[in-house]
Design brief:
Radius of gyration: 17 Å
Number of strands: 8
Helix content: 40-55%
Distance between the termini: 17 Å
Number of helices: 9
Oligomer: single chain
CATH topology: Rossmann fold
Strand order of the largest sheet: 2-6-1-7-8
Structural class: alpha/beta
Order of helices and strands: EHEHHEEEHHEHEHHEH
Bound molecules: cytidine-5'-diphosphate
Strand content: 5-15%
């Protein structure tokens, strides 16, 4: 069983996907962390991020592993707590727009679902990674609400709201306008606007949809 959850930055995908997976006893896969890990590696190696043609060679030197707690390892070093730093936030959309990066990571993502029930979240799960997913959800929320949530998550002051809005908008635009696997609502996806919802409610809504449909198909 494959549950795809896509949506723009800070729309609540990660926490929702994690809790839905827990309730269903499925594995939660956060694909954003993989794009962030590649970006971190390139930044640390001082790879010229404006020259996507050298990425292929650089990717050959990179081994990404992760476990089902969503800890990510680059060449066997745990980088999980470095993935949300500003340098990564500001460059991840540029790196993830490059086809060879996507091809590598999509292969990894498809592989995981071969022998596992998964809740996978990202930008292109319902469109590219698993266009035939059993269930597809698209989470969204007003930009101010998303920025506020991200400030709280990062323990930043409310005074930083405008710069957070700008950062999120910039990333969303790049993700929506890129040529390869842009962020769009997948065919058949159920749109959930979480602006006025609590996490527990959006989790319950998704789990109920899955259980209801499952019941019908099993009858
Ligand atoms: O947590 P947040 O929504 O802010 O972002 P994320 O899910 O960690 O994703 C970080 C970035 O990775 C996105 O802005 C996209 O540029 C890229 N990404 C992607 O291109 N495809 C995915 N399936 C997941 C993430």
């Amino acid at each position: 069983m494959i549950i795809a959850i896509d949506g723009p930055a800070a729309s609540g995908k990660s926490v929702t996907a994690k809790d839905v997976a827990k309730k269903l006893k499925y594995i939660h896969i956060n694909t954003g962390s993989m794009y962030r890990a590649v970006t971190l590696y390139f930044l640390e190696k001082k790879v010229n991020l404006d020259n996507g043609t050298i990425f292929k060679k650089e990717l050959k030197k990179l081994k990404i592993n992760f476990n089902f707690k969503n800890e990510i390892f680059i060449n066997d070093i745990d980088v999980s707590n470095k993935l949300r730093q500003d340098s990564v936030n500001n460059n991840v959309s540029k790196v993830s727009a490059v086809k060879v990066v996507r091809d590598n990571l999509v292969a990894l993502q498809r592989n995981i679902a071969l022998d596992n029930n998964v809740v996978m979240e990202g930008r292109d799960i319902g469109t590219t990674v698993f266009p035939n997913a059993d269930f597809k959800f698209y989470l969204t929320a007003d930009i101010e609400v998303r920025a506020k949530r991200r400030l709280i998550e990062n323990q930043k002051s409310e005074n930083d709201i405008q710069s957070m809005i700008d950062q999120i908008k910039k990333r969303d635009n790049l993700d929506k306008k890129r040529k390869h696997s842009p962020l769009v609502v997948a065919d058949g996806a159920i749109i959930i606007d979480t602006t006025n919802m609590k996490i527990a409610d959006q989790v319950e809504k998704i789990v109920n949809i899955i259980k209801r449909k499952d019941k019908y198909t099993n009858e």
